[in-house]
UniProtKB/TrEMBL annotation:
It comes from Faunimonas pinastri. Pfam families: XdhC_C. This is Predicted sulfurylase large subunit, molybdopterin cytosine dinucleotide biosynthesis. Residues 75-216 form the XdhC Rossmann domain. InterPro entries: MoCofactor_Util/Proc, XdhC_Rossmann_dom.
Length: 236
């Protein structure tokens, strides 16, 4: 691989940005395509599919090989609550790097969350040290606007691939008003999955955790879409 190309690829990896090396196996010619530029590339459709799956491989032409480099997906959970206790081990099994942010030290304890990165700071402080990005999912689970609203806004601004929030339709309607007052555009706010999780009729914290993780994976692998209307989903 050309040294300059390798340097650019390593820069992308260090910044947690996805990129693909396109190799002509017959001529040896290579080029780097950052994910942000994929939509304008001649191989746009295939590149975007590969970025979603994270899989490298030979294309149907038998000569073009795509080497895909995507950051490991992360899940940032806002709130060290019962749902989080069920969600964290499930997400870890699914291969997500997980961290929990909750300023309430009575909840953010190693006893309740063994082996998990716990950040017992207010989200606005924690996210300055641990910034969000395209390959991060954020799930806001506290039901407390003082804790949830700032990370939700930051996740939308950062382009997180998934943003979800716990709460009923009525709770979310008030949240939409608050986020709008914070300067978020309606199309940004519409990306929030609220009530959070796939509509599987979940009732218990463990069931809600399954619904949330399934929705995170669905969004990661199928691509970002505007969230479904709240009335079509369960009021978690």
């Amino acid at each position: 691989m050309d040294r300059n190309l390798l340097h650019e690829l390593n820069r992308a990896r260090a910044a947690r940005r996805a990129a693909a090396v396109v190799t002509d196996t017959q001529t040896g010619e290579q080029r780097l395509v950052p994910e942000r530029d994929a939509s304008g590339d001649p191989l746009s459709d295939e590149l975007q599919r590969r970025f979603r799956s994270g899989r490298s491989g030979l294309l149907e032409d038998g000569r073009t090989f795509l080497t895909v480099s995507v950051p490991p997906p992360r899940l940032v959970v806002i709130g060290a609550v019962h749902i989080s206790q069920a969600l964290v081990p499930l997400a870890a099994v699914a291969g997500l790097d997980v961290s929990i942010i909750d300023p309430r030290t009575a909840f953010s304890t190693p006893e309740r969350f063994p082996g998990v990165e716990l950040i017992a700071d207010w989200p606005e402080e924690a996210l300055r040290e641990h910034p969000l990005d395209d390959y991060t999912a954020l799930a806001a689970l506290t039901h407390d606007p003082k804790i949830d609203d700032v990370p939700l806004a930051e996740a939308l601004k950062a382009g997180c691939f998934y943003v979800g929030a716990l709460g009923s339709r009525k709770t979310h309607a008030k949240r939409v008003e608050r986020l709008g007052a914070m300067g978020l555009a309606p199309e940004q706010i519409a990306r929030i999955h609220a009530p959070i999780g796939l509509d599987i009729g979940a009732q218990s914290p463990a069931e809600i955790a399954v619904a949330v993780l399934a929705q995170v994976i669905q969004t990661l692998r199928r691509g970002r879409t505007v969230a479904e209307p709240a009335e079509a989903k369960t009021a978690a």
